[in-house]
Design goal:
It is built from two helices and 52 strands. The chain is mostly beta strands and about 700 residues long. The longest helix has 8 residues.
């Protein structure tokens, strides 16, 4: 059945911001053919930023993850982007081995869906990667399942449930239940006129579709020449649903909700900005803060939006902290309503102590014998107390470990006396001879006594690396880092991404495969180099550029993170979790880099634009050091304080000490003194970076603090 939709035509183009991201409903499927040759078509219902990557897979969804035994095709938008209303047709030649995909319309297609099943199949569209997909559209020549099938193989791959946030009739289309068989389907509608939300509703109406087993009746040859024209809708008004929120530290997450009226037309974005005497360090948020801002994406047709926030428990008595969230930076389809601010207060609960894992993640090796897990109690307990630690073994089994005190049915009963500030327990690792890969367990706090709340880290992950058949890599060095590469060197796709240069100081080739690289001190396994790709091999004495572009799908040397130009930690780790090399990178300007003065040197300097040396020895740079400054630091490890004895010209040198998160712990000047004493009695145990410098000359050293 065809349905006409007439309205005045006004072309509407949504401005694309640098932070734009795709949401469910930003594209919609128009057709699918499972009788060879296979293929599908989709339309863009928002402007698509340049180089956007969308994956299309016929793998099913098991309720928590994609199956892995079918295929994925990847479409990449051209650098200039794609305007809303653009139709893209993907044709799949399954006679070739492997199958070959071609694209009619903008962009390029890689990979293919090697054989959509003629007995029914689905295509799920997502951004991100297969491990963490963000679904944006779906189509099926079968019915969508109400209950997910968790068994991979057979019919489970060709008859899937829908992953969130996809909903049939809203942003996903399937063959109706009264259709006996339809290998080929398309929307039988030519001229679309209306807002993106109006047009999406037309596409999602099954009455507007043709379904047939015969490709001559519902295949490529009879697909319409779809034409899309967009009218400018009235902007949607967005407001906080409440103007005030009161939170207690450590009391869990609160959801802050917005009302949107009328429904959002097209994908929209806005920013919520934080101000007041509370800072982002006081919160966990989802989505996460970027500076003082939270970016919120609003999909087509949405009538509400939300983000979650929780006040972190700390060890400080701060009284009531206050602040304001303000709606800012609205995309053109939104206007702020009268309730455009939300005031909040954070209260320190009186008489309450918080119990928290000391870290959200712990790393150990099977052969290390044991791992001590420390939990903090702050402020110190006013009374005796108890709680439980729940263990989820994940890949581990009870044959892999024991605990002290012993766990009973996956639960450790913990107790402590009044005045306690810590509780520790031990995970005893059983060293076997079986190669079993890396394994994890999850821990969580439960059953707290009255007067105690869960603190900042209420859960923790234990990563245990296997020591059977593991090769420990040494003699690899982080040699140079660039956090704002605008024109220095491009990757294989012509993109100017952040880069990390790794130098192989060994006299044999070494492989990055299986190693971890990260920009987070507390997440040492953030990105793992894939196995089986020769591009990860570094020749003896050679260099390798790793692209920190948050695009691991682009290749084995592309990571899942970027480097902040305001300063960032970078670490390279063995599969055992042991550090190979790490460095805290200072703030860098466009096309500057931070590198060793030459290979194996412990002296690091900033190379200005034009003097960086990607994929080459840093010694070839023409940088000149006009002064030499250095300092002897003792004692190390330090307890209450440590000294810096300056060699050479000591007058008016700047001294900064940073923790590994980049926070400044000490800032001072030597004046005319050659010996400086620094109080570290209040610092946490750990490694700190000491920077001594003047003008453009700086040296870096490390100091360990142990109380």
């Amino acid at each position: 059945m065809k349905r006409n939709f007439l309205s005045a035509l006004i072309i509407f183009i949504t401005s694309i911001k640098a932070f734009a991201q795709l949401a469910a409903g930003d594209i919609a499927f128009l057709a699918m053919q499972t009788d060879a040759a296979d293929g599908f078509a989709f339309v863009t219902l928002t402007n698509i930023p340049g180089n956007t990557i969308i994956h299309f897979t016929d793998n099913g969804w098991d309720g928590s993850a994609l199956f892995t035994n079918e295929n994925t095709a990847t479409w990449t938008a051209p650098a200039a982007g794609v305007s809303m209303g653009t139709v893209v047709i993907i044709r799949i030649d399954t006679s070739a081995t492997p199958s070959v995909s071609t694209v009619e319309g903008p962009g390029i297609i890689e990979g293919g869906l090697s054989g959509l099943s003629a007995t029914g199949d689905q295509i799920l569209a997502y951004t991100g990667d297969a491990a963490n997909p963000s679904f944006i559209a779906a189509i099926s020549t079968n019915l969508f399942l109400d209950v997910c099938n968790t068994t991979s193989g057979g019919s489970s791959n060709n008859n899937t449930c829908l992953p969130e946030p996809l909903v049939e009739g809203i942003n996903a289309i399937a063959v109706p239940g009264d259709v006996t068989e339809a290998d080929n389907i398309f929307i039988d509608f030519n001229d679309f006129i209306g807002s993106p939300a109006d047009i999406l509703a037309i596409i999602m109406d099954p009455e507007n579709w043709t379904y047939d087993d015969d490709p001559d009746l519902a295949g490529y040859e009879v697909w319409p020449d779809w034409v899309f024209n967009f009218i400018t809708p009235d902007p949607s008004e967005i407001s906080f649903q409440t103007g005030f929120l009161s939170m207690d530290e450590g009391a869990g997450a609160a959801t802050i909700t917005f009302s949107i009226s009328p429904a959002a037309s097209g994908s929209q974005n806005m920013i919520v900005s934080l101000s007041g005497n509370a800072s982002t360090d006081d919160f966990n948020s989802n989505p996460a803060f970027e500076g003082n801002d939270i970016l919120i994406n609003i999909p087509t047709g949405a009538t509400s939006a939300s983000f979650s926030i929780s006040a972190l428990a700390d060890v400080f008595t701060e009284g009531v902290e206050t602040g304001t969230f303000t709606i800012t930076s609205l995309s053109p389809g939104l206007i702020a309503g009268t309730q455009n601010t939300l005031n909040f207060e954070i209260n320190d609960p009186e008489g309450v102590s918080f119990i928290s894992f000391a870290s959200a993640e712990y790393n150990a090796n099977e052969g290390s014998g044991s791992l001590t897990v420390t939990m903090n109690i702050a402020p110190a307990a006013d009374s005796d107390g108890n709680f439980s630690i729940l263990i989820s073994e994940n890949e581990l089994s009870s044959a892999d470990y024991t605990t002290t005190p012993p766990a009973n049915a996956g639960v450790i009963d913990a107790s402590f006396l009044a005045g306690a500030t810590q509780f520790s327990f031990v995970i005893n690792l059983i060293d076997d001879t079986e190669e079993e890969g890396n394994e994890t367990m999850s821990l969580s706090i439960d059953g707290l006594s009255a007067g105690f709340n869960v603190g900042q880290f209420g859960t923790a992950t234990i990563n245990i690396s296997d020591n059977d058949g593991v090769i420990i890599v040494t003699d690899l060095y982080i040699n140079e880092v660039s956090a704002s590469n605008t024109s220095t060197v491009s990757d294989e796709n012509g993109e100017f991404d952040d880069w990390i240069e790794i130098y192989n100081g060994a006299d044999v080739s070494q492989d990055l495969a299986g190693l971890y690289i990260t920009d987070e001190v507390t997440n040492t396994s953030k990105h793992q180099f894939p196995v089986g790709d020769n591009s990860t091999i570094i020749e003896a004495g050679g260099f390798k550029l790793v692209w920190a572009d948050n695009s691991p799908a682009q290749g084995a040397l592309h990571t899942n993170f970027t480097i902040s130009a305001s300063g960032e930690f970078v670490g390279l780790y063995n599969v055992t979790g042991e550090v190979i090399d790490s460095i805290s990178v200072p703030a860098l300007g466009p096309d500057q880099s931070y590198g060793r003065t030459d290979e194996l040197s412990t002296d690091w300097v900033i190379f200005n634009s034009g003097l960086t040396t990607p994929d080459a020895s840093n010694a070839t740079s023409s940088i000149e050091l006009t002064e030499t400054v250095s300092g002897k630091i003792f004692p190390s490890p330090a307890n209450q304080s440590f000294n810096i004895s300056i060699s050479g010209e000591a007058e008016n040198l700047n001294i900064h000490v940073f923790d590994l998160n980049g926070r400044i712990m000490y800032a001072g000047n030597t004046g005319s003194n050659s010996l400086v004493n620094i109080d570290c009695s209040s610092w946490s145990n750990g490694i700190y970076l000491v920077r001594i410098g003047k003008n453009n000359t700086r040296t870096y050293s490390k100091i360990s603090v142990v109380h």
